[in-house]
Amino acid sequence: METAHQGADRAEGEEQRPSSPSEDAAGPAPRRRRVGILLAVAAVVYALDVVTKLLVVAKLTPGQPVHVLGTFLQFDYTRNSGAAFSIGWGYTAIFSLIAIGVVVVIIRLARRLYSAPWAFALGLLLGGAIGNLTDRIVRAPGPFRGWVVDFIQFPHFAIFNMADASITCGGVLMVLLAFRGLHPDGTDERAEHEAERAAEAEAAASTDAGSLDERQP
């Protein structure tokens, strides 16, 4: 049976025992990557783009617009060899290579993606890029030269598709996030600056309090 003296010695030894490397390495819980959000948003955008294009090709005739909301919104089936919103006609192969580059960059960036808003924005961009790239690969006149299906038309505006809208929304959101100071790796410049100012204010208050204590008799 262990005596009280032996128990005290054992407790003291445990307190003096150095921590193991595994215990030292155990810090705060690691941040979660937001790849799931990225892939989910991209999958939804891609599915919507593919389904709407299939319906347009099957149901509409080029040059015969369908009035959805009078003259404000029409579905006008056209084929575009350029980029989003019918920009850059005749450069289909070049835009195909650009789209592939965008997809590769986003996939590589996903390894350091810890921000949910950035994951959402990049998912919009990824889904739209793959949607239009699919058209360029599988549609006539041939691989990487195929024409993209456009059909959404507003007054005095270029005809576009769901992928174009997704790419634009993703790009605008990324610009807003950059201005906000939020980075893909989850760091928040504004929050860090506010924490630094709060720490400086607390340190100044502590210094002032110490000075008052020293002056008092």
Features:
217 residues; mainly alpha; three-stranded antiparallel sheet; 8% strand
Strand-helix topology:
Elements: H1 4-16, H2 21-25, H3 35-59, E1 66-69, E2 73-80, H4 92-109, H5 116-138, E3 148-153, H6 162-180, H7 189-215
Antiparallel strand pairs: 1-2, 2-3
Sheet of most strands: 3 strands, antiparallel
Mean pLDDT: 82
What does the overall shape look like?
elongated
How many helices? The count is: 7
- How widely separated are the two ends? 57 Å
Q: What class, by secondary structure content?
A: mainly alpha
Question: What low-confidence regions span 5 or more consecutive residues with pLDDT below 50?
Answer: 7-28
Report the C-alpha radius of gyration, rounded: 29 Å
The total count of strands amounts to 3
What fraction strand?
5-15%
Helix share bin: 55-70%
Q: Helix and strand succession? A: HHHEEHHEHH
| Strand neighbour order, sheet with most strands | 1-2-3
Task: Give an overview in words.
With 217 residues, this protein is mostly helical. It has a domain of 150 residues. The protein has 7 helices and 3 strands, in the order αααββααβαα. A 3-stranded antiparallel sheet has the order 1-2-3. Helix 3 runs parallel beside helix 5, helix 4 packs antiparallel against helix 5 and helix 5 packs antiparallel against helix 6. The longest helix is centred in the C-terminal third of the chain and has 27 residues. The protein is elongated. About 10% of the residues have low confidence.
